[in-house]
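input
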Amino acid sequence: MFTEDARNWVTAFGAAQEQVAVQTNAVTRPMLMNARGSTEAAEALQACFDIY
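output
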């Protein structure tokens, strides 16, 4: 159900120390997000992957 790209993103998101950069086709530059709380969020997302 989930792609390998999604799993890789969750792994990188959980390992982030300060910022997470996300590149999409909608913008020309990567969006920078604060990584605060990313470990807990990544664990929750990983749990979803494990269920499905």
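quick obs: DSSP finds two helices and two strands in the chain.
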